[in-house]
Automatic annotation (TrEMBL):
The keyword NAD does not apply. InterPro entries: CFA-57 (IPR052993), WD40/YVTN_repeat-like_dom_sf (IPR015943), WD40_repeat_dom_sf (IPR036322), WD40_rpt (IPR001680). Keywords: Cell projection, Cilium, Flagellum, WD repeat. Pfam families: WD40 (PF00400). It comes from the Eukaryota. The gene is CFAP57. The lineage of its organism: Eukaryota, Metazoa, Chordata, Craniata, Vertebrata. This is Cilia- and flagella-associated protein 57. WD repeats lie at residues 62-103, 185-226. PROSITE patterns: WD_REPEATS_2, WD_REPEATS_REGION. It comes from Goodea atripinnis.
C-alpha cells in the first residue's frame, strides 16, 4: 500500500506490506492487514479493479499504533484513554465510542503518558524532556517543559493538583499549580518501573527493578512501608480497591499482596 498524499488520514511514513487478505461472504468488501499493524478495507462493488494504479484503501475502523505501546493512561472525568508509542505518536481514544479522537506525531519516541483528571492536559515523557501539553479539539500543544530525561513513568494525582514523574531511580513530585518540584522520593537502588497514587493522594506506591516495593507519604516525602525481594524485578504496582494493601507483580510471575511489610 502506497501512502496517499491527498488523504486527510495519517499516512504511514513508508509503504506497507500486506500480510493477510480476506473477502466478506457477499464478496463486496476486501479486508487486509499490514506489517505495520494496520487494518484496511476496500469496497469491491464500487472499485474499478481493471484500472491501473494504486487502489484506494480506507482504515477498517481507525489507524492503530505501528510500534510498541510504551504508556497508557485513563482519564477520570472523560471517557478518554491516552497511549504513547515507539512509533513517535501519542493517541487519544474514546472508549465509549471506540474511536480515535486525536493523533499527534512527534520528532522522537514517546516513553510515557499521563492524562489530567479533567481531560484537558497531558504529560508526555521524551528522551530529553517531560512535556506538559494542552489537549485541543484537533491538536496537542506543549505549554510547559521539565528537564527530566527519559521519563518512562508519570502519573497525575487523583485531585489533579500534583503529578509524579520518574527519572531513573528517583520519583519527582511537582505541583500542578506552581509547576515547582516539591518533593524528591529517593530510596530505590534500581530503576522505578511503576507508580500509583492512593485515592486521597496522601500516599504513593512504587516498584522497581531492585525488587523493592515502597509506600511513600506524599506530604512529608518519607517512606512509610517497604517490601524487598531481590530475586524479583518488579514491573507493576497498584493499590487494592480499599487502599489497605499494595499489589505487585514482576519477573517471577507471581502476583503479591503486601500489607504491613508482609
Amino acid at each position: 500500500i502506497l501512502p496517499d498524499p491527498a488523504s486527510s488520514d495519517f499516512p504511514p511514513a513508508q509503504c506497507q506490506e500486506i500480510d493477510t487478505i480476506c473477502i466478506s461472504p457477499a464478496e463486496e468488501t476486501l479486508a487486509i492487514s499490514t506489517d505495520r499493524g494496520q487494518l484496511y478495507s476496500m469496497n469491491l462493488s464500487s472499485a474499478d479493479t481493471k484500472r491501473d494504479g494504486p487502489l484506494h484503501f480506507e482504515f477498517l475502523s481507525q489507524p492503530f499504533h505501528s510500534n510498541s505501546i510504551t504508556g497508557l493512561s485513563i482519564c477520570i472525568r472523560k471517557p478518554f484513554m491516552a497511549t504513547s508509542s515507539l512509533d513517535r505518536s501519542v493517541r487519544i481514544w474514546n472508549y465509549e465510542t471506540k474511536e480515535l479522537e486525536l493523533n499527534k506525531e512527534f520528532q522522537e519516541e514517546a516513553f510515557s503518558v499521563a492524562l489530567h483528571p479533567t481531560g484537558l492536559f497531558i504529560l508526555v515523557g521524551f528522551s530529553d524532556k517531560l512535556r506538559l501539553m494542552n489537549l485541543f479539539i484537533d491538536d496537542i500543544r506543549t505549554f510547559k517543559e521539565f528537564t527530566l530525561r527519559g521519563c518512562r513513568e508519570c502519573a497525575f494525582s487523583h485531585g489533579g493538583h500534583m503529578f509524579a514523574a520518574v527519572n531513573g531511580n528517583v520519583i519527582h513530585i511537582y505541583s500542578f499549580t506552581s509547576f515547582e518540584n516539591i518533593l524528591n522520593l529517593k530510596g530505590h537502588n534500581g530503576k522505578v518501573r511503576t507508580i500509583d497514587w492512593s485515592l486521597d493522594d496522601h500516599r504513593l506506591a512504587s516498584c522497581g527493578t531492585d525488587g523493592a516495593v515502597y509506600e511513600w507519604n506524599t506530604q512529608t516525602g518519607k517512606r512509610e512501608s517497604e517490601s524487598v525481594l531481590k530475586s524479583c524485578s518488579y514491573t507493576g504496582v497498584a493499590f487494592s480497591s480499599d487502599f489497605k494493601t499494595i499489589l505487585a507483580v514482576g519477573t517471577d510471575l507471581t502476583l503479591r499482596e503486601i500489607q504491613d511489610f508482609q
